[in-house]
Write a structure and sequence with these properties.
CATH topology: Lipocalin
Low-confidence stretches: 1-19
Strand content: 35-45%
Distance between the termini: 47 Å
Largest sheet: 11 strands, antiparallel
Structural class: alpha+beta
Number of domains: 1
Number of strands: 11
Order of helices and strands: HHEEEEEEEEHEEE
Number of helices: 3
Protein name: Secreted protein
Keywords: Signal
CATH class: Mainly Beta
Mean pLDDT: 90
Amino acid sequence: MKFYALFAGLTLASMQSLAALPSLNSHPNQQAFYDALSSLCGKAFAGRIVTDTAPSAAFQNKTLIMHVSKCNDRQIFIPFHVGKDHSRTWIITRTGSGLSLKHDHRHKDGSEDEVTMYGGITSGPGFEQVQAFPADSYTQWMFAEKGLPQSIGNIWKMFVYPDSFSYQLVREGREFRVDFDLTQPVETPPAPWGTQ
């Protein structure tokens, strides 16, 4: 009898735990976008800067590689390699009410950068090829705390077409965009910093 009561309690707790998880149901546009990115899993592609209204030495004359390194039904991890800098990973997550984009920034020793895990959440269904991620409330707070008020209005966009992928940042007075050629996979880069 005690065993039955314990089992029933565990079952109820398990069911409540499962019920707390967000549904994986997505708007068809977001599902198509997520599936298109997932289809690239395991591949790496070279890119080039096509727009940069405030050029930075960190990106100039550097090899730019995106690597769709890990995918499951909930998350996609895309390390973005800039020359020998392996500090950046884009993380796309299905939330149950849309998609989120986070930027995981690491130091060479694997420790987190003081400005990391910032990003945005879709505010609408978007399009099968394009999703926009306005800065979420945590990101806005962090940028304010870190003395980066100009970034509070950031909107990140991702575009995925059969032959190209683009990553774009826009805000008042600033635009940055990198286009990647999906027709020519390249050699897989090293693992991003902070991963095995």
